[in-house]
Amino acid sequence: MKPQLISGGNHSDSRGTLRFNNDFNATDIKRIYTIENNSTEFIRGWQGHAIERRWFSAINGKFEIKLIRIDNWKNPAKKTSYSSFIIDDVKLDILAVPKGYISSIQALEENAKLLVMSDYMLGEIDDEYRFELDYFEI
After folding, report:
1. Stated pTM of the model
2. What pLDDT digit, counting tens, does each position of 44-63 carry?
3. Angle at 106 between CA 103 and CA 111, to 5 degrees
4. Listed residue (92, 72, 79) closest to 8, CA to CA
5. Alpha-carbon distance values, 81 to 23, 84, 126 (Å)
6. How far apart are CA 42 and CA 39, in angstroms?
7. How far is the CA of 113 from the CAs of 62, 64, 107, 127, in angstroms?
8. Cβ contact 68:80 at 8 Å
9. Tens of pLDDT along 67-114?
10. Could you tell me whether strands 9-13 and 16-20 are parallel, antiparallel, or unpaired per DSSP bridges?
């Protein structure tokens, strides 16, 4: 599987604004949390999972999320390609990340907040991998 952006939408009228995503199936979600980077200069990465799937949605501001598919979890190739996605709080777009990917996350606006959803509870499996930000040659 490849990462997929599930497009949401919004509707505004005299009552306010409604943001929605009618195409997102949340059946597999077991855990949610938010991320707020300390500045727009900070890049949170590289971190990911061989088994766990994640979904990202900007609930305030704008983010750039880069994804790398890992070929070997013990010794991944340093020269690799990546996918880049920009998500913001205008619509309730959701970036679906399949298992086997690591991510870097950068807020593009001050006070940006990212909602993260996972298909495993914290501590349910031992499946967290981290690499230094400069490990990959992208």
Report:
1. 0.95
2. 999 999 999 999 999 999 99
3. 135
4. 92
5. 28, 10, 26
6. 6
7. 8, 12, 8, 24
8. yes
9. 999 999 999 999 999 999 999 999 999 999 999 999 999 999 999 999
10. antiparallel
Collect all residues with Cβ–Cβ distance below 8 Å to 17 and sequence separation of at least 6: 10, 11
Q: Is the model's pLDDT at 1 over the cut of 90? A: no
C-alpha closest to that of 31 among 121, 134, 129, 107: 121
What the block records as the tokens of 119 is: 């298909």
Counted residue by residue, the chain has a size of 138
Q: Tokens 């013990």 belong to which residue?
A: 74
State whether residue 132 is helix, strand or coil: coil
Helix (H) or strand (E) holding 27, with range, is none
Q: Please state the rounded mean pLDDT for residues 121-132.
A: 96
111 is written with which tokens? 């006070």
User: What is the set of domains in the chain, with CATH numbers?
Assistant: 4-9+29-130 (2.60.120.10)
Token pair for 93:
């777009």
Q: What is the mean pLDDT of residues 32-54?
A: 97
